[in-house]
Amino acid sequence: MEKDIILKAENISKQYRLGQVGTGTLSHDLNRWWHQIRGKENPYLKIGDTNDRSTKGDSDYVWALQDINFEVQRGEVLGIIGKNGAGKSTLLKILSKVTAPTTGSIKSRGRIASLLEVGTGFNGEMTGRENVFLNGAILGMTKKEITSKLNEIIEFSGCERYIDTPVKRYSSGMTVRLAFAVAAFLEPEILVVDEVLAVGDAEFQKKAIGKMQDISKGQGRTVLFVSHNMAAVKSLCTRGIVLENGKIKFTGNIDESLDVYSDNANSTEHSVVFDSDTKRLGTGNIQFISAEISDQFEKLKYEFSIGDDLNIKFKLKNNTNEAKSEVGIQIKSSDEMPIFHIMGRDSNFELNHITEQEEYIVSIKDIRLFPGIYTISLTSNTTTGHQIFDSIENALSFQIMDGGKYTIRNLPRAAGLFFLNPEWKKL
Amino acid sequence: MNDNNTPNDWLFEITPKNKFFSLNLKEVWQYRDLLFLFVKRDVITVYKQTVLGPLWYLIQPLFTSVTFTIIFNNVAGIDTGTVPPFLFNLAGITVWSYFTACLTGTSDTFKVNAAIFGKVYFPRIITPLSVVISNLIKFGIQFLIFIAFYFFYYFSGSNLTINSTLILFPVLIAFMGILGLGLGMFISSLVTKYRDFTYLVSFGIQLLMYLSAVMYPMELIKKKLPEFGWIVEYNPLAYIIETARYMLLDIGEISLLGLIYTFTITIAVFFIGLLFFNKTEKSFIDTV
């Protein structure tokens, strides 16, 4: 069967100029223009580094996106994930025609509407009702469309009482609710959504996610979704694109994409040594030097089966002669959901420091997690917890593989988190 | 929907550059409600939380006219013929302020709307168009006060006549708007990269007024400064204002050639402005 492609991106690249626009702009403009009239290629397109925020480049130009190719099918909900600065927002900006790509093209068979940030164009002096019309029109609705949905929009926002009050008198939460309500009733063929769920209270967030699910599943609309809320991405999207430094690292179903993404964030090694490049927080009184994970046979490994033991070994360096400390270990799933948190005191264990460097091991017997990738974060602090000595997010990761001694069936990650095999009895 | 599978039925394509020239009128028409709402927003929010409200529309031209009458007519002694100097000034200022409002309103389109342009797409030209239209409403109100004073002077015995070309007055105002829009779009495109133009507009517009025959008849400058009179003569703005006074008050002299010249320049400025605007709108958000 022929695929019904609604959106196609071909070789999309986007170049940005670093530093201050203004110094040297004129000379670059003139040089560019001089090349153009002689029919030569833009001289500044050839140079440019890949977009890695943390390393210092030698060029004034960077590629925020490079050679992005993908296709989206009708009715698909595509999650675009990646670290800060990976190029997600740039891609969405290009898709929503806010800015043009430097090279390449995007072809579309449907109207694209974007929700890059709710409340765009709200005017404080105008009433809620007037703003619904204005905002709706900015997002591409006609007056007729808005009028026909006005009651639904107002009801969804839950701001009925204030609808004829100027928006400047609204609380920020109310503004956001109203703005999201307008956006939620847009009916484009393709909807581009960026981080809108990060607003409002928990109840409203739930409502918003529900609405997004309606839009994608119920109404069969195509949605491109960018969010750092991995749980939201997971529950909404069917397919994912992982961006890294402006390039596509992975395209595939959403679970795999999330795994690749969380993989991106840390090492796949079973042991790590922390050095000055490690991103860490805290006073540094006590610091982690290294950590490693192994199974019940003390074999260092990254891939575990359900029912294996997980041993976390770590080395501490005492920089300021602390007598006591406490260590916390947090395990999170690939969608950033905390699964559990372990502290020494839970097992009546105290870390009393005598020498400058000491090594500890924490054995978790019989791990019963569903297949997927999990991350381990390490924290060292005072026994009271008032002061953090050292904290390393996603220091290590491990993967639980399908199969193993307990499981004979397939365990999709969407079905659950903990694998239990309790006693069954017929009564 | 019927031929989804043919390869070339894309609804639209996003490419690095616009075609050399494109004014997507169909798209602008699709967004006409937005244009209307922008105009409405501009009109109802301008003087919110002021005591005098829309009266401010009237205060500004009236006081300026009074000042001009005192300075240029009573002190400097510029002769306005049979027409009362106040009415002469009011006519010039009303038309001139429509132009300045259009120019200043549109010349920072990209800068002022960067936040909204950075979030959502709609035809960018809607914004400057809405400025020109909402200022037209403001102009309409100011023009009413001109008519009121016209009748006041008429019934108090001044020798006033109306020219039969008055029916073409709306066309003239449209051209004034188009000229302001064209120039404004041109400058707004440059402002995205070079902020210098913002300052140029704010003080340049004051100087331009003196070159645009607002407070004196065109004939006068030709008589008094024969060697520099051509600057005013070749200024399309001066010509439009002179023509407006010709239509409203039946004074001054205009020629068909001058009108053709003015209108040609106006159309040219508009299209150059549009060209730059089109080129800028695609990726100004990276430089603004």
UniProtKB/TrEMBL annotation, chain A:
Family matches, as PROSITE patterns: ABC_TRANSPORTER_2 (PS50893)
Gene3D superfamilies the record matches: abc- transporter (atp binding component) like domain, P-loop containing nucleotide triphosphate hydrolases
A GO cellular component entry from the record: membrane
A molecular function (GO) term: ATP hydrolysis activity
InterPro entries xref list: AAA+_ATPase, ABC_transporter-like_ATP-bd, ABC_transpr_TagH-like, Bact_Polysacc_Export_ATP-bd, P-loop_NTPase, Wzt_C
Database matches in CDD domains: ABC_KpsT_Wzt (cd03220), Wzt_C-like (cd10147)
Keyword terms of this UniProt record: ATP-binding, Nucleotide-binding, Transport
Domain ABC transporter: 45-270
SMART domains for this protein: AAA (SM00382)
Superkingdom as given in the UniProt entry: Bacteria
Similarity annotation: Belongs to the ABC transporter superfamily.
Protein name as annotated: ABC transporter-like protein
TrEMBL record, chain B:
Ranges where the ABC transmembrane type-2 domain occurs: 52-280
Family listed: Belongs to the ABC-2 integral membrane protein family.
Name assigned to this protein: Transport permease protein
Subcellular location: Cell inner membrane; Cell membrane
GO cellular component terms attached to this protein's record: ATP-binding cassette (ABC) transporter complex
Taxonomic source organism: Flavobacterium aquidurense
InterPro entries named among the record's database cross-references: ABC2_TM, ABC2_TM_bact-type, ABC_2_transport
Ranges that cross the membrane: 55-75, 87-106, 126-155, 167-191, 197-216, 254-277
Membrane topology field: Multi-pass membrane protein
GO molecular function: ABC-type transporter activity
Main location: membrane
GO biological process terms, semicolon-separated: lipopolysaccharide transport
Keyword set, alphabetical order: Cell inner membrane, Cell membrane, Membrane, Transmembrane, Transmembrane helix, Transport
Pfam (any one): ABC2_membrane
